[in-house]
Amino acid sequence: MPPAKPKAIVLLSGGLDSSTCLAMAQEQGFAVYALSFDYGQRHQVELAASQRVARALGAAQHLILRVDLRPIGGSALTADLEVPKGREPQAMAQGVPITYVPARNTLFLSLALAWAETLQCSDIFIGVNAVDYSGYPDCRPEFIQAFERLARLATRLGAEEGTDFKIHTPLIKLSKAQIIAKGAELGLDYGLTHSCYDPTPPGLACGQCDSCLLRLKGFAEAGLKDPLPYA
Ligand code: ZN
User: Fold this and answer.
1) Which domains does the chain have, with CATH numbers?
2) Containing H/E element for 149?
């Protein structure tokens, strides 16, 4: 019998980046434990996408945690604020966008860390990316390194067993086109994923929000066709 694969938790939103990140974790030889959050996001359809992706790729387990961030608000994704449409890439690159969810990656990584401790695993994957879109402070390498230090200090595994938690960010230096090319090479069906921040009631991507525009630009630059239907 081959030795059991090491476990890794992968934060899986059901979007293009996190789905590619999951495929890359498997490529690196990990048994993947997918973690998604029902946080009151206006694009709830991404949870269905996360289930499709976790199932199609054969995750060892898929957990969807409910953490309602709507009472905190402060983001166009969780409060009644307009999602920006039709922005130019230069405008997207400026400042922290309204679609930033306050401290989201800190919250999500903390919950992933809690699950990692119970699973006795020290590897967590997150599909953050600092190239195409650097407006999110919690996508920076400095943040990830600081979280690794925190993880060691904050847990029994770290304190008693000296476990060094590793936060893997395989996408951090890739462009959207490179991410798509990588996923395609690994056989990921992007038709399973969902990226739109503001889908139509039946769940179609709008084609106009920052996330849709970056996705479409990425496919164009990768020379591939996005299999998703758009409104
Ligand atoms: Zn959209």
Assistant:
1) 7-222 (3.40.50.620)
2) helix 141-154
In the reported structure, the alpha carbon of residue 205 is separated from the centroid of ligand 1 by a whole-number distance in angstroms of 5
Each residue's pLDDT tens digit, 13-29: 999 999 999 999 999 99
Q: pLDDT band at residue 5, thresholds of 50, 70 and 90?
A: very high
Measure 200 CA to ligand 1 centroid, in angstroms.
Answer: 9
- How far away, in angstroms, is 41 Cα from ligand 1 center? 13
Nearest to 25 by CA among 58, 72, 70, 55: 58
Tell how far the Cα of 197 is from the centroid of ligand 1, in angstroms. 5
For residue 96, pLDDT over 60 is answered with yes
pTM here is: 0.92
Cα(44) to ligand 1 centroid in Å equals 13
Sheet with 166-168, strands from edge to edge, namely 61-66, 31-38, 7-11, 123-125, 166-168
